[in-house]
Amino acid sequence: MPLIQWDETMSLDMDELDEQHRELIDLINEAFDAIQRNDERCMAPLIDKMRDYAVVHFEAEEAILRSCGYPESEVHAGQHRVFEEKVEEFRRNLAAQANLSQVFIFLSRWLTSHIMHEDRKFLPWLPETDDEGA
Ligand SMILES: [Fe+2]
């Protein structure tokens, strides 16, 4: 069973960011799957892949926030840095950690909550969606 399941309640009604969030969730699920299988060969590369994609996604999201003048864009970017640091720390101590699944579940919940609450705050600053008034 996937750790996170994307559903419409997570949608920001912006295709670019929704697609990136879906992709990130897929990568989280893949990495979690390897962790649960205790697949040591796949675990680290999949966590790296997830982390790399998170960095790319955060950069894209932050660029959008700055370009649309979201006043909290620096605070929001700071939240992304916290996630990146937590993943980095998790990744560094991979071999030494007793309960990988538990830590990874924590990281995933943090991200889901970020998408559903923090990302929602910048919605009023986003440009009109494609399907409105088209
Ligand atoms: Fe965000």
Automatic annotation (TrEMBL):
- Which GO terms fall under molecular function for this chain's record? metal ion binding; oxygen carrier activity
Q: Which domain of life is it from?
A: Bacteria
Under InterPro entries, the record lists:
Haemerythrin_Fe_BS (IPR016131), Hemerythrin (IPR050669), Hemerythrin-like (IPR012312), Hemerythrin-like_sf (IPR035938), Hemerythrin_metal-bd (IPR012827)
Entries under SUPFAM superfamilies matching the protein: Hemerythrin-like
What keywords would UniProt list here?
Iron, Metal-binding, Oxygen transport, Transport
Hemerythrin-like domain span: 15-126
Q: Which PANTHER family match?
A: BACTERIOHEMERYTHRIN
Q: What is this protein called?
A: Hemerythrin-like metal-binding protein
